[in-house]
Automatic annotation (TrEMBL):
Record GO terms (molecular function): DNA binding; DNA-binding transcription factor activity
PANTHER family recorded: ARSENICAL RESISTANCE OPERON REPRESSOR ARSR-RELATED, HTH-TYPE TRANSCRIPTIONAL REPRESSOR CZRA
Organism: Heyndrickxia sporothermodurans
Record's protein name: Winged helix-turn-helix transcriptional regulator
PROSITE patterns to which the protein is assigned, alphabetical: HTH_ARSR_2 (PS50987)
Domain HTH arsR-type: 15-108
Lineage of source species: Bacteria, Bacillati, Bacillota, Bacilli, Bacillales
NCBIfam families: HTH_metalloreg (NF033788)
Gene3D superfamilies: Winged helix-like DNA-binding domain superfamily/Winged helix DNA-binding domain
InterPro entries to which the protein is assigned, alphabetical: ArsR-like_HTH, HTH_ArsR_DNA-bd_dom, Metal_resp_trans_reg, WH-like_DNA-bd_sf, WH_DNA-bd_sf
SUPFAM superfamilies found in the cross-reference section: Winged helix' DNA-binding domain
Length: 108
């Protein structure tokens, strides 16, 4: 990725309220450690709620609550197989932000 791809075009008009809201909600989603752990796990492959709970040593109710929050922001999606829901990430832009932030944190 070139530096030009990372540059924000500041020549645009002010940010509208909807954009500001979405940006703030996205950063809110990424500000909670459990949601970060879930998204990081989903960056590899899809998982069921039970798999996520087991792999991250979390209660199923906690995972379900966080997945609902992430789904409402369209950061995760699911597919149904019988009675099981399999979750995967649904926004490559946000996943790239998460990966870059993790890399940034690991290099400090």
């Amino acid at each position: 990725m070139t530096e030009d791809n990372n540059r924000i075009d500041l020549e645009h008009d002010e940010l509208d309220e909807e954009t500001l809201f979405i940006v703030s909600q996205t950063f809110k989603a990424l500000s909670e450690p459990t949601r970060i752990r879930i998204l990081h796990l989903l960056s590899e492959k899809e998982h069921s709620v039970n798999e996520i709970a087991e792999k991250l040593s979390l209660l199923q109710t906690t995972v379900s609550h966080q997945l609902r929050f992430l789904k409402n922001l369209r950061l995760v999606k699911y597919r149904r197989e019988g009675t099981t829901l399999f979750y995967s990430h649904d926004d490559e832009h946000v996943m790239n932000i998460l990966k870059q932030t993790i890399n940034h944190a690991r290099h400090h």
